Amino acid sequence: MPARKNQPAKTGLSKIKQRKRKRIETLFSQLKGQFSMNTNFAKTFGGLAARILAKITALAMIQYLNLFVFNRNINNIQINIC
């Protein structure tokens, strides 16, 4: 699609930045979908912080187990551990 007159020219991302961006977007998508990060019923800031920390810790634990214990892809968080 051609750019408009007032739109700056597109700058392409390097392959490394594209991979990093894809990984970050995948992570946010997983947190939103699998861990319901956008749904929150906390009453206080402490409760909110505890819930977010618990969800991020669970994701990190699944990624650790996938990588070092089960020799799977780190992004496969929906696979049963058992």
If you had to describe this structure to a student in words, what would you say it looks like?
With 82 residues, the protein is mostly helical. It has a domain at 15-69. 54% of the residues lie in helices and 0% in strands. The chain has 2 helices and no strands. It is flat and about 50 Å long. The model has no long low-confidence stretch (mean pLDDT 84).
In short:
The chain is mostly helical. It has a domain at 15-69. It contains two helices and no strands.
Highlighted features:
0% strand, 82 residues, 54% helix, single chain, mainly alpha
Instruction: Compute the CA-based radius of gyration.
Output: 18 Å
**Structural class of the secondary structure composition?**
mainly alpha
Strand-and-helix sequence, N→C? HH
Mean pLDDT: 84
Question: Hey, roughly how much beta strand do the residues contain?
Answer: under 5%
**What is the β-strand count?**
0
Helix content: 40-55%
Distance between the termini: 48 Å
Net shape: flat
* Biggest sheet character: none
Helical segment count: 2
Low-confidence sequence ranges: none
Set down the secondary structure blueprint.
Layout: H1 15-33, H2 45-69
